[in-house]
Protein 1
Amino acid sequence: MIKKYLEKNNQANSLNKAILRQLKAITGKVLTAESDRRCYAYDATNMEYVPDAIVFPEHEDQVSQILKLANDHEFPIVPRGAGSGLTGGALAVKGGLVVVMTRMNQILNIDMDNLVADVQPGVVTGIFHKRVQRLGLFYPPDPSSSAYSTLGGNVAECAGGPSAVKYGVTRDYVLGLHVVIPDGTLIQTGVRTAKGVVGYDLTRLITGSEGTLGIITQMTLKLLPKPASTQVLTVFYPSMHKAAENVSEIIRKGLIPKTIEYLDHAAIACMPSDLPGGIPPEARAMLIIEIDGIPEQIESECSKIISLANQYQAISIRKADNTSESNAIWQARKAISPALYKYAPDKINEDIVVPRSLIPDFVDKVDELRHATGLTMITFGHAGDGNIHFTVMLDKSDAVAQKKADIVIESIFDYTLSLGGTLSGEHGIGISKSAYLEKEIDPQTLALMRQIKKAFDPKGVLNPGKIFPGEPS
Amino acid sequence: MTLNHQNLNNAGKCIRCGLCMSVCPVYQESLEERDVARGKMALIEGEQNSFKLKDTLQFKEAISRCLLCGACAHICPNKVQTNDCIQSMRQRMTATIKEKILISSLSTLSSQTLSGQIFRKSSSVFQKCVGKEISEQSGLHLRFPLTSISHRKWIPRISSSPFTSQYTLASNSPKKILYFTGCGANYLFNPTAAALIDILQNINQVPIVPDKQMCCGLPFYAAGDHQKAISLAKKNIDIIENFSPAILLTTCGSCGAQIHQWKQLLKNDSNYGQRALRIAALHKDATDFILESDYFKKMIPSQSDTIVENIWYHHPCHMRWGDAQLELPKKLFKPFNQVNVTYSNDQCCGYGGKFQISHFDLSMKIFHRRVDSFKQGNIDRILTSCTGCHLQFLEGLLQNDMSVSVMHPLDWLNRVVKKRKNITN
């Protein structure tokens, strides 16, 4: 496989010996060896930018001291959780210091009476899920990477997941934050209560700001009571169109499942052959539907959905028999994104959102582009909320394919916006999509966003080169 | 392209998704990228792209910090053979002096030469002298530092004569069974071997136990000494073929996995390649074999409530996936309705062969994750079918000042069947 190593212009003096000594005095350990820097050069985008040094703070005041140092000496700071992001949020595109938050990984408090939890940013999402589940509680945001991503990264990117149709996304569960802003000041935003309208809602501003406004050091998260039970359905269709129409119809009928995931035929081919119930050979589309609630309600919703699926020519409908079957189905679904590499060595992955009633139109558009270009295109995603993972698999060393892909992405974005959609539902902008930001956001609004960034980070030391297009480098 | 090259090129298939972080015991302890497979793949790919990292201390350290438990390779959505890749890099790296010493002391254990015998015998004698003050109850738990490993609390008491030399029986059983003891049952845990022979005799099977059998080669393979691993594989194949067995039994999960690894090691060998395939096809884990036999029907015809115990069963990594993969041996405990079993099936014990020796503290931290559950669960006994895991539990329990007996499942089975017989008689 040919891979481009995107080497930055080595700003050799951005972190001089005196600075490294001070960093060491703050955290006790600074990694600077070539070998160690290579291990923090990538994230799940599989692009590489080698940082100058890496630190692992363990306390809020260490984060504050690190940021103050960076601000005084004007070197770039790149906050990093598990490095599982898909748009390059954790990449040191301008070198500098990577601040790894994985060691601040304590669940500080779970308040069972008020259903809130105080956590540090390095807590692994999946571990948090299990912890609250054991207490009969539920934290709905569940990105595909939840087994290894961190809650801090989830908040910084405003991660979503399959249950947004019913339960919303990460921002709907962040009540308050501790954030260190670039001059080293610790600010506290938000509340610990269900309501709160005092002052500007900085919590929402920082959630999804991709580490460009501050480093989150503590979070107050909202929890829900765990639904009594769940039921997973897998349904196969003869065409993507039928499946997409079925989704719209399910929602129109007032049935709101916890999750409606869809897979096109290319994504189905990435499912393991031992998927419970098997995969009918003639299947061209698949829905994974999960319903939660009290058992009687599940039973009634389930039969309604099954009868609707039959109306839309479902080839096979299967109710998962037990938890281990449901788990196997979800595990297979979560593994699709990385498994797509069997088609080609490089992936262009967009997570556009369209109003869910317009999914069939979007699917038609993809078919049209597929036929016109001959490129391998895969769509799957959260049909319940209209968030579609549109993916082109190609070999980037093939200039013709790359050119075609650029055109395809451009027209997909234009089409998405014409449907009233948005360019990213949950992955963020990072460096992967900054070139397209101006398609969606008008100049006046973008200018205001830049001013907000400046108010937090006048010297531009925090995660430079992200979100905004054409950043002077 | 050599096998080594092919394995190293595997690193380029890694897409850095990070899923391996969710299963890696070393990463979960340190939370550092160099410790997880994607970090190592980035380093190896970088090295392959001539970034000249190989000779740096940090690179060597990163490559050495792997248990080779195989969890990452098992879960990898892009099917990157991370194990083979890391092993091949170890092979390519210049062995440090410490590693050379380690490999040579392992060599003496594995070789049948005079020096090997002397090493084994002298250490056995030495231990007998030192061990006088230690109660027989914890005969294996010697507080005695090995040369390079001063913080170790337990060192093996090596039996004065290997099991293979104590046991000589020609096979006259209907099925021709060959028992490959491995170094564990042969030198350290003779009761495991004795239990298997006992159990087999109860179902009228008399196995062949070749006294010339060699180390399976796994320690060398893991340390990157492929040549030694290949030569041991060939010698073992020669010895095993001599007896043309119908079944090849092992009591150590790691030996079992290595017998399947022989296929991979010898796949480019025109002579041994096919033979390794045939040998691997004969392999069966001894516990699995007993569970499928009529032993239970014969020895424990009805439910037994005379044995009351809390057991912790640890499933070795080498049985959790790969060619030697096995289901949990739940059948083993079915006849005993007063035996309460906790299955540990999702975490490496932290041994990892050479890993425990070169990264002792980290290895113990990984082990430590389970100590709380031992304390809460009033565990009477730990069962595991792998020499490495067995050694790790002995050391780890001692480090935590806990006294729980550790044994092979067949050793336990043989004891409880005998005990039950005594009670019912």
Protein 2
Amino acid sequence: MAFNEMIHEAIQILIWAVGVIAFVTVNALALVYVERKVSAHIQRRLGPMHVGPHGLLQTIADAVKLVSKEQIIPKNVDKFLFLIAPILAFFPVLVLFVVMPFAPNLIVRDLNIGVLYVFSFASMEVIAIFMAGWSSNNKYSLLGAMRSVAQVISYEVPLLLSVLSVILMIGSLKMSEVVQYQDKIWVIVLQPIAFIIFMLGGIADTNRAPFDIPEAESELVAGFHTEYSGMRFALFFLAEYSNVFLVSCAATALFLGGWYGPFVNGVHWFLLKVYALVFVIVWIRWTFPRLRPDQLMNFCWKILTPIAIINLLITGLVLKLV
Amino acid sequence: MTKRFSGPLSLVSGHLSMKENMFKTIKEIILGSWSILVGMFITAKWMITRPVTIRYPYQPTRPSPVHKGRIRFVIFPETGTHDCIACLKCENVCPSDCFKIAGEKPAAGGQKRPTLFTYNFSTCSLCSLCIEVCPTKTLEHSPEFNLASGDKAIFFYDFLKDTEERREKQDAATLNR
């Protein structure tokens, strides 16, 4: 009987794995398309229009192009780290889908430490970026990677402090309970400042929008993924867009009431909120100029962290007195 | 000169006292948040306005009447044809040797007229020197712009034939009107 159950489990795991990978890939393709279209309309132009109706198949064409490119490995790179880095960048994405509460019955594994799990794996991409920059044997890559590490580490602090305020209020790390707490009222109404800090920290965490110093160097000079071509670059790219999606997922689960909505609760409300947040993140990217590294650090340590700490204190006080 | 606002986010704030620093921080947060919102509303406005792109092959462009395209003969309204006297000035002045012209005086007398007038558009640089130097002002730029082709032979124009075709098209257009 135990063997039967094992087979049962194994098949379930296989189905979930295939489903998650398929969803991640299609989602990343869709997000790249959305970004190109939104950025185009903000700049009063049209974006991709030729490949497929209104350019819908453009990302597939780009993916095919990237896959068919020659994989160049420069001579003096640290072979092992160089080859491992893209995989390590993409791996947290797949792993984080396991706890995201899409619907009451659509969580792959509802871990007791769901929230902790999310943020511990979110920090793994820093390691991947640093490995990529270090092994590339390229001054500019190394500088880009170091700046990215400094940025992500410093923005994790207010991010986690804001999440801590929410968890303090809810009292559980389990993702489904975090969402179920919000059936009457969303957490964003109770903790608006925490939401703003979370969004800013999340955007900085994924090296995006006004905080994209590591990426910006790749436009201007080099950046940590300069020496990567073809499929490896595609993996970094995929990882970045999927991280944007995952940050929005976490924000929806923690602050915006997850799968709850007016008429019928379900996965459609969750996805709607997630994509609304993704749209806001893309909107922010094309509105603001890039922050300098020193402005970035200043903003984080002198403004965000004090506000996050004050928010935590107030939450604690209110919880104690009420 | 912009006023130097030294709050905690600027590089120069060591000279401020604790109280000043705190007030400046709060002021900076409020002003900063407001500017963020304003910026996002501006981009939102651009997001919903119509794009300015003209999708060229699928939508007609707005050709300019002063567009300087290939060289052609002027069809004068009084005579209904060109006024070239085969003086060869355009052939001599052209820096790219685009013209091949031959002309003769008709036996019955009258003006010298061209018998052969070919023009190579593939070497023409549109410098307009031939137009400036023509004594009868019989050369002009055409406003045509859809002139791309995969076959080089199309770019060797015979002006005499070309003028005939244009005249016929003009007559046909006036008849149809």
